[in-house]
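Sorry to interrupt, but I need a hand with the structure work. Could you write out one complete protein record for me, on any chain you like? Could you add the entry underneath, on a fresh line?
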Amino acid sequence: MPNREGTRAVTIRQLSLFGAGLDPWDEDDRRLRPVAQVVFSEAPFGPYDYEVPEPMRGDLAAGMRVKVPLGRGNQRRVGYCVDVGSPASTSRNLKLILSVMDDRVLLLPLMLKLARWLAEYYLCPLGQVLETLVPSGVRTQAGTRVRSFLTVSDSMILQKKDIDLPTKQRVALELLADRDTPMTPDELASAVGCSLAPIQGLIRKGMVDLETRRVPVFTPEPRPLESDEPPQLNQAQEEAVAAVVAALEGARQETFLLHGVTGSGKTEVYIRAIEEVVKYGRQAIVLVPEISLTPQTWQRFQSRFKEVAVLHSHLTPQERNWHWQRIAEGNVSVVVGARSAVFAPTPHLGLIVIDEEHDSSFKQDSAPRYHARTVAQWRAQSESIPLVLGSATPALETWVVAQAGRIRKLDMPDRVGGRTLPEIRVVDMRHEKRAAAGGALSRVMVDEMSQTLKDDGQVILLLNRRGFSTHIQCPRCGSVVNCPDCEVALTHHHHDESAKCHYCDFSQSAPSNCPECGGREIRYSGLGT
């Protein structure tokens, strides 16, 4: 606005616009400048609008990270660009984006749509969701390094014979001109048999073009694996595969509950369905509940498919980035991993499989607190692809929707090869206590354990209890030693003679006398470990 002398005051903001070749007082020009919407992974989360400078307008796209000034102090922060909008409809001044952090889009439009749904459905800031979708190894580009590459332009190739150069420089220039691929300065110096000085001289003279780019320097060691012969399918397996393949060929979204007992061959059904997916040039995601099972499952799929990637939290940042980039480039047929693998950036997704779908490990216990099964359902619906949920003991909610007909149930009641299920016997311990044997172990269990040990076998006893005794009570007055906060019986731990609450971690010394009546005949009971 005009000052007292009739001239217009120039602000720092306007000076920056002058530097960009723009007229800071041209309101029509200001309305034509594109605006980017940026969110942050930490408070304040945003979104905030930033103006896209002219040099970045061809490079910036939604799904890339940017560095921007934030707040009155213009603190430099890295955020995610979630939208590059049409020209601004207001004349308000916006801060300029400082730089673009990525040379490629990290999140495709469908993954950005997934992130927005996650943020709304699980009540989590969008920036935190994006931080979950893009692993830290990808954000830091772990396993890569910035290197310089030299090339010779076509015009310089035509002029090289007429240029007077020292011998080493001429040899280097001719060698580089004859190459179809760029060379690093070190590679060129080694090929010529000279130091870096002649190469640097060519760079200073402008005889060669210097380009810097980030290249991968990490490659996991290959694991030799033997190929497995596909087994013969039984009738239940064939019917299950046919149902999934029909949905694939019809390009429709359908959810299947593969309800099969342990050993019924569910994994082979997954593999046969994925083989059909790969034939169409598409990709599959297979989720397993435990990270410890991922290598085993990966080896099973690796023996049947050429390109298999693995994603889980126990990978190093270099490994995770290497697998993630291969998936994003479409070079992977099958992605195997724990719950976070549901966010694999597959550009051609054709099928999602969740093995042991009832397992609680598919729930994330930190923000965003998602359930991988729910996310998989959203992706399957969005991309019109089948979703297969496999389990011998389905989750209650899955069983209900299957019984209601909202998803299709495929039954596999028999084990492969007609193998029998292990025998399970329930022993009434009330009768055991009346018998002479008594004790915590039944006579049947003692006999079976003895026979197994005689046959050089192994025995595993599972008792899902912590502590030595689960109950501390006075036989005189009947009072029980309880937690003062939770009002549940304290558990006796023998190793440190303590009484602990397994709900709130309250702890006290194990009493030798009754706290109520002072009786000395206090009794410790209940089986423990």
Observations:
- The two ends are 81 Å apart (CA to CA).
- Residues 1-25 have pLDDT under 50 and may be disordered.
